[in-house]
């Protein structure tokens, strides 16, 4: 089968790989129908994710058809159409029982990281019963690909951890797919202000269409002053970091209001200064989270009932044999206007 393989710092290639086989009783083999590329895949290529070794098939998002199941799988059978969660969970270990699927003792974020992922014709999904979701009859499968990772990530790491509340003020630093997913799902709670911040005017235009009340291009370096001006000098109640570089976390530190929450979403490859000399007295909280995907069933209902339309995030479509073009388009988003790219097999 064809697969996109990480080959070391900055290197990737399309290779022929053997079709994966069942290894454990609760595995399923899923034939990929649609997959996509994540900002995290770009972090892997930048060398930010030490756990992902060269030779790994990338990808942790997708929709597919169950091809075969191990003897322990009871919920799914060959032919079932399924959404693949970016997080594999056994459902039984201490962390899974606490809803912290991302830290499952035999799962977590393993797909396209420590085991082969979804940017291929087939993928082996461990703990299939508790890591796959049935695609509802008549569902739009492209929209559902947005539920593998980006919608639960924006919602859980940003909106839930950031305790977005009616009438509150929110700033989301980073208007990429994750920041936009946080923007879409923050509106479940009717905050008064949602300020989107990015370096890219095209993405900020989209953010306004998706419900941002204000947008700030931070290229000039005065984003913090502008947020303070927009909030009467108070700052925001929730500041979400949706980029993964020191500058954007520090911007969140600069714009958080007393009593506020900095909700980190970004994957960081470098240390960041924590300004406790100014923040110690501000009654703030800082949260971090690897997405758990505990909210996937709930988000699936909001997509099915058209409360949100994540398909708006899809800008480009490719076939698997053109996945290198898809990476090029996704990696040069400022030039290409790409948000999420759909790759069909
Ligand atoms: N915590 C989790 O579980 C989890 C899950 C998935 C993704 N992520 C991470 O979330 C982050 C966002 O993902 P994405 O797919 O939206 O990434 P992306 O790279 O597509 O988007 C990042 C956005 O940040 C903007 N940006 C870059 N530098 C900036 C700066 N200095 N100031 C303001 N904006 C800046 C870029 O223009 C871009 O629009 C990544 O770090 C990704 O790895 C985390
Ligand atoms: Zn991802
Ligand atoms: Zn577990």
Task: Describe the model.
- With about 350 residues, this protein is an alpha/beta fold.
- It has helices at about 40-45, 95, 130, 140-145, 150-160, 175-185, 200-210, 225-230, 245-255, 275-280, 295-305, 325-330, 335, and strands at about 1-10, 10-15, 30-35, 60-70, 80-85, 120-125, 130-135, 170-175, 195-200, 215, 235-240, 255-265, 285, 315-320, 340-345.
- The chain folds into two domains: about 1-150 and about 290-345, Medium-chain alcohol dehydrogenases, catalytic domain (Quinone Oxidoreductase, Chain A, domain 1, Alpha-Beta Complex); about 150-285, NAD(P)-binding Rossmann-like Domain (Rossmann fold, 3-Layer(aba) Sandwich), CATH 3.40.50.720.
- Helices cover about 25% and strands about 25% of the residues.
- Helix 5 (about 150-160) packs across helix 6 (about 175-185) and helix 8 (about 225-230) packs parallel to helix 9 (about 245-255).
- The radius of gyration is 20 Å and the shape is globular.
- The mean pLDDT is about 95.
- The structure holds nicotinamide-adenine-dinucleotide and zinc ion (2 copies).
- Nicotinamide-adenine-dinucleotide (NAD) binds near residues 175, 198, 267 and 333.
Poorly predicted sequence stretches spanning 5 or more consecutive residues? none
Bound molecules: nicotinamide-adenine-dinucleotide, zinc ion
* Level-2 CATH architecture of the largest domain: Alpha-Beta Complex
Number of beta strands: 15
Work out the helix count.
Answer: 13
Strand content: 15-25%
- CATH-defined topology of the largest domain: Quinone Oxidoreductase, Chain A, domain 1
Query: How far apart are the termini?
Result: 11 Å
What sequence of helices (H) and strands (E) makes up the elements?
A: EEEHEEHEHEHHEHEHEHEHEHEHEHHE
Radius of gyration: 20 Å
How many domains in all?
2
The level of helicity is 25-40%
- What would you give as the CATH superfamily of the largest domain? Medium-chain alcohol dehydrogenases, catalytic domain
**Looking at the structure, what is the overall shape?**
globular
Give the class-level CATH name of the largest domain: Alpha Beta
Query: What's the rounded overall pLDDT mean?
Result: 97
Structural class based on helices, strands and sheet pairing: alpha/beta
Largest sheet entry: 7 strands, mixed
